[in-house]
Amino acid sequence: MPHSIDPEFTALPLNAIADAVLDRARELNVEHADVRVERIRTADLALHDARLETSHDNDERGLAVRVVHDGTWGFAGGAVIDPEAARALVDRAVEVAKVSKPVTGERIELAPEPAHGEQTWLSAYDVDPFTIAEADRIALLADWSSRLMAAEIVKHADASLKQVRENKFFADLAGTVTMQQRVRLHCQLTALWVDEATGRFESMRTIAPPVGRGWEFMTGGYAWDHELAQLPEWLAEKAQAPSVEPGRYDLVVDPSNLWLTIHESIGHATELDRALGYEANYAGTSFATPDKLNTLRYGSDLMHVTGDRQAEHGLATVGFDDEGVAAQTWDLVKDGTLVGYQLDRRTAALSGIARSNGCAFADSPLHVPIQRMANVSLQPAENGPSTDELIGAVEDGLYVVGDKSWSIDMQRYNFQFTGQRFYRIKSGKIAGQVRDAAYQSMTTDFWNSMAAVGGPQTYVLGGAFNCGKGQPGQVAAVSHGCPSALFTRVNILNATREAG
Amino acid sequence: MTTIRPQEAVDRALTASKADGCIAIATHAATTNLRWANNTLTTNGVTQTLEVTVVATVNDADGTKAASVSRNLTSHDEVDALVREAEAAARTSAAADDAAPLPDGRTSADWDDAAVEAPVAALGGIASWLGEIFQTARAANQGRYGYAEHSIDTVYVGTSTGARLRFAQPAVRLELTGRTSDGSRSAWSGKGSADIAALDLAAIESDVARRLAWGERRVSLDAGRYQTILPPSAVADMMINAYWSAGALDAHEGQSVYSRAGGGTRVGEHLADVPLSLRSDPSMPGQECPPFVVAGASSRMSSVFDNGSPISPTEWIRDGELASLIQTRYSAKLTGLPFTPWVDNLEMTVPGADGGVTDMIATTERGLLLTCLWYIREVDPQTLLLTGLTRDGVFLVEGGEVVGAVNNFRFNESPVGMLKRIVEAGRTEETLAREFGDYFTRTRMPALRVADFNMSTVSQAS
């Protein structure tokens, strides 16, 4: 690993803070205590028509103390990073626990985790994007925007780049002390066509995924030149495309779209805190309740879905989670059957599971860790077909590329997605784009209709920077790998007709 | 605890600035919260921070450049470093199209007042109440789930043109979901307020209990278009989407539902047959919000150069006609429309409307009554078609009374298109949007009866 942890972060009095917190926690007779010190640097750029519109850098620093006192949670966070302030936060966390006592109907116990001693972990990247001058980042986005705008069809072009470097220090009473650094970025470009006379407009966006990588992704880690060259052509075709005829179609879903369907209909549905009702007031619960473990037919026999916090360049990849649990990989759906969940130490203990699989995460030092999504990925079929071969097997259907709109109900049954491009398939061949299409289904109906899974050559790691959950709201980045796949008889809606 | 006062951070930043222009925004944020599920606490917290944003503007041959940098601060030295960072970023940035002279300076009378805290003990009353309703719920074989938050952001804005502005924004939010132990029925109620003492806790619990009781009889309905009563919370979620999409720049460029065929915006066009008003006002009683622009970064609907500009009451829709769009001074110049910046509250009123959901039920021959909407996302920006789900209680109303709970639906509807199908409105009341209430807490909405609301497909969620 060519990098080292940000020296500004390691210069903080981290060990003294850990000692102060854990000593004070022992004095106050807490059953559990952990402390996190974090620095999260973010940089946002947005250009419109190749002109800078947004330039904002953020540097969030702070520390958080979490305790279990008298069987009750207590949490306090603040921005002052020194031992004295850290010690005071322990007192505040215990105060919160005392105020919360009337609301606590069960003693908080956590699944055990071995002490890991002192550990350091860095994500896999080549070039820290914060070493690239803002002028150079703007110049690249402006150049790419200008390329799009050179096409007659493109009336406007938007470009955005968000980059993050996240440092976390963690220590707990059990003896785990971790120091971690992760880097990620997400760049998108969108071309817009407007017919001023009729008022119609259409857009076409790049499908480059957000990645747990550095600046190298911008300069050679993705086929930017190809996609930027094609975007106006795709947009022009969409502008002239016929409106889709609603009905049932066989649907080939590209990984650039399927990742989001996996995220919503499998990723969230297999979070144990949801299945136990923790999110009933907000993000929702799950139809995949624990009584269905090892029996629920989630999908066809072809379906093998894993959870992991270890995939290279994965956005949810870590060395250790925010409860000091070492990163792992496990099965969620095997041969079409629900076989696992994503866990933190509390939900594991509640369900009698011996060990958490390491899905605790807090997006800020001001937020308490909750169970967040691992990288949840559909495994490709060994020696499976290419995307062209999947399309070739369809007599009359659609092929969808790129994500756009998404929505799913509070128990993860009914979903509806759109895409960047929908293509008609006729007699095994692409027959031009259609517009206004959305696909809608029930989760288990959809996955049970999966008739073919693409091979490893179709596998792409997609993902999102902005997965929301929890109250107060928290945002997490997560990756989803998947191949192309074929689904039969999927309900296709026409968005224009839906509008009435 | 922070060790530097917000006013000191602002003054220090402006003094340290060597750029052509400087804006400093210090936000002291204090919050306490409780979260519970299945009749027990799941998380809680108390936090306090001081975040300072420095916007530096630099004039050179290319034009005026701007960049903003934010950081949690605790010392004077950190302020100096932040200013240098913002200036360095501005110098290497690109010219800003929205560049404009910073507004003339004004000083708030309460500039010297301290930031407001959110004491942990403030949630003590809610904790005690929860302990009581948990007992009742357990006895009824039900669970209670929810969240209570008390937060106060005190924001201080200073500019190199002399502005020194302060605003303290208290926000209290309480949400309660009730579920039967078998998960077959659920109900939700929520309230937002500026004052924790103003929350009627008993009313929230009785609303949940009443809706759970309505669900004892189940009725299955197919997808289709139904006359639907949207309570104020559901109206708020739809109208927040209509408001968020009302950026003047997008409308001007032909890429929004507010763009006019042939060019320009739809300002002046009739959107609703009912003479409704959709408006914002920083001094709206009980919904007060900053009466001046606070913009940490420029975007499609905000400009750092507008920081400190006064915000006046704004009618977005007047008598059913689109009257204003969200503007920066830059977009106002482009569109030739008045400068009507973003305001952090929203109210819909309908002249002569009276009564509430209960009254609407009583006059309904047959229709649906919703509780709230969820997972609302844009499907088609051309029409602002949104999709989403009904949640935690959809009820069939027949002959003036609720006759049972109906399955949930996925809807596909446009909040703008919907305005022309309003057949009845209730009185305007404070409400909390179920989905977007955590970002946009200050809303006053009526219940609406809407014809042909598009319930596109059935959802099995219960």
Give a structural overview.
The complex is a heterodimer of chains A (500) and B (462). By secondary structure, chain A is an alpha+beta fold. Chain A folds into two domains: 7-240, PmbA/TldD superfamily (PmbA/TldD fold, 2-Layer Sandwich), CATH 3.30.2290.10; 247-498, no CATH class. In chain A, 23% of the residues lie in helices and 38% in strands. Chain A is built from twelve helices and 22 strands. Chain A has helices at residues 7-10, 14-27, 83-100, 134-149, 216-219, 224-240, 255-267, 272-275, 345-350, 387-392, 443-448, 495-499; strands at residues 32-48, 51-69, 72-78, 118-122, 156-172, 177-195, 200-205, 247-253, 305-308, 329-334, 337-338, 360-361, 370-371, 375-378, 396-408, 414-426, 429-434, 437-442, 450-453, 460-469, 474-482, 485-494. In chain A, the strands form five sheets. In chain A, strands 1, 2, 3, 4, 5, 6 and 7 form a seven-stranded mixed beta sheet that branches. A five-stranded mixed barrel of chain A has the order 8-15-16-18-22. A four-stranded antiparallel beta sheet of chain A has the order 11-10-9-14. In chain A, strand 1 and strand 2 (51-69) form a beta hairpin. The longest helix of chain A has 18 residues, at 83-100. The mean pLDDT of chain A is 97. With 462 residues, chain B is α+β, with helices and mostly antiparallel strands. Chain B has two domains: 6-211, PmbA/TldD fold; 212-239 and 352-459, no CATH class. Chain B is built from nine helices and 20 strands. Chain B has helices at 6-16, 76-91, 124-139, 201-214, 232-244, 248-252, 329-335, 357-362, 415-418; strands at residues 21-37, 40-60, 63-72, 142-159, 164-180, 186-193, 218-219, 224-230, 277-280, 314-318, 321-322, 346-349, 366-380, 385-398, 401-406, 408-413, 422-425, 429-431, 443-445, 448-459. Chain B has a six-stranded antiparallel beta sheet with strand order 3-2-1-4-5-6. A six-stranded mixed beta sheet of chain B has the order 11-10-9-12-19-18, covered by helices on one side. Chain B has a five-stranded mixed barrel with strand order 8-13-14-16-20. In chain B, strand 4 and strand 5 (164-180) form a beta hairpin. Chain B is globular and about 70 Å long. The two termini of chain B are 44 Å apart. Classes of the chains: A alpha+beta (500), B alpha+beta (462). At the A-B interface, strand 1, strand 2, strand 3, helix 3 and helix 4 of A face strand 1, strand 2, strand 3, helix 3 and strand 4 of B.
